[in-house]
Amino acid sequence: MKFSPPAEKNPDKSRLRNLLSIFRYAFLVSVLSLSCLETPRLAAARLPQDEVDALNLITKKMGANGWNFNADSCGEYLPRVQRTDPDRNITCDCRFENNTCHITSLYFKRFNLAGELPPELIQLRYLKNIDLSYNYLSGSIPSQWASLQLEMMILSSNKLDGNLPKELAELKNLIDFRINDNNFNGSIPDFVQNWKQIKRLEMVASGLEGPIPPSISVLETLTDLRISDLNGPTQGFPMLITMTGMIRLILRNCNISGELPAYLWTMKSLEVLDVSFNKLVGKIPDTISADRLRFVFLTGNLLSGDVPDSILRNGINVDLSYNNFAFQGPEQPVCQENLNLNLNLFRSSSMGNNSRRILPCKRTFSCPKYSNCLHVNAGGKDVIIKENKTTLSYEGDGQEEGGAAKYFLNEQSFWGFSSSGDFMDDYDYQNIRYTETRWISWRFDRWLRIPAYLTPVGGSDSDLKLCSSGKKKGTAYVVAGAVAAACLIATILGILWWRGNLPGKWCRKKGNAYSDLC
């Protein structure tokens, strides 16, 4: 006699249970497999205890409270949402015996660290790269660091002072050295000639004084040289003829006199030439073979002669403002409106007693009345705001795309601007930048939509005379509200999500913030 098993009352439910069982089994196998794979990886990425102790001591001396590192800190990376977010990254070399790693790179940027540069850095014997920029670190560079085999040292935008220790001459492997925006003392040291492998050297507003040592001429591997704001004696242009691979050359406000050397205009790799705010004389040559030039800043010198056609090439940005060039009338080639370039000629010729020479490419210019104030809606259209009995007219400049070398004149409203400079290292040759559009509160019950401009540091619009129709304007007090509306919306959405009133499930993790609205 055969017995048949009882029929399943709900076959669909049975199949669902089977599928869930298979899923649970597959998930368990996957977790075990990943665990087996993860164990040797972690075992192969261990720091020796002496480097762990040194790392904790180093960060504590720099003012990083609450940072705790362990033997598994290799490869630790703090992700950034925006470019201006803090950057913490530890890189190791794990190709040593006995499953040992050693720290080779430290990146601690934009953490507002207010401590000092720690001499204990030398305990990380395999360290090659350090980037501690955009903090509040003070004190001097420890001379002990010279015993390391450093290839990169970036200390820009801190509060460092003192002389550069002479022991740094021993950093023979140095490729990248940047100390911009600090308070160092003394002259640029002659020992930089020892850095024979250097490619990038930056001392922009570092606090150091001139002159630039003549021995810099031996650094033939340089591709990026940036020095600015040097006090000290007047000097001639440094000899850079052997630096045939130069890409960016910035010697701004370095108290350099004399003529620009002819070889500068023949450098095949040169893209950026900024020698503004010096005491340079002479002319721009009629022939320029530096075909890759994209930015030429000659602002604030004593250059003369005509503006040659050789500098008027497609896509280039040229600032010739505040010089002694021949006046460029509307019939000159530089005044053609169809040129595919950014050219700033504001006050580019010697004025003498003729104020008309302030504005090139104009036959006549008359100013009804000079004004002592101007309201500009940067990046937007003309806006009229009424507040009580006061009416304010904000002139819009949104129709102008900006640029690294820009001269703009609004002949109807009799105002304009001169802008010079570039946001370096963003590979934006047109240099058109905006901040994101914001709703700004100018009264507690009213909001104004403002797409604001971001302009280069080198802006030079303060010397332009502003004209008005002569009507007296009142004064209004504008209250700038931040992003309270966005924060309120984010809070409401968070409450709805928490209560399950929004579709789907968002991942949340204790201690982590995912919202960038507020």
From TrEMBL:
Instruction: Give the transmembrane ranges.
Output: 476-498
Query: Gene3D superfamilies in the record, alphabetically?
Result: Ribonuclease Inhibitor
As for subcellular location, the record says: Membrane
A Pfam family annotated for this chain is LRR_1
In the record, what terms sit under GO molecular function? protein serine/threonine kinase activity
Indicate yes or no for the key word Ribosomal protein.
no
Give the way it sits in the membrane.
Single-pass type I membrane protein
Mind listing the UniProt keywords for this protein, alphabetically?
A: Kinase, Membrane, Receptor, Transferase, Transmembrane, Transmembrane helix
Q: Which GO terms describe its cellular component?
A: membrane
For this entry, the protein name equals LRR RECEPTOR-LIKE SERINE/THREONINE-PROTEIN KINASE RFK1-RELATED
Which source organism? Salix purpurea (Purple osier willow)
Traced from the root, the source organism's taxonomic lineage reads:
Eukaryota, Viridiplantae, Streptophyta, Embryophyta, Tracheophyta
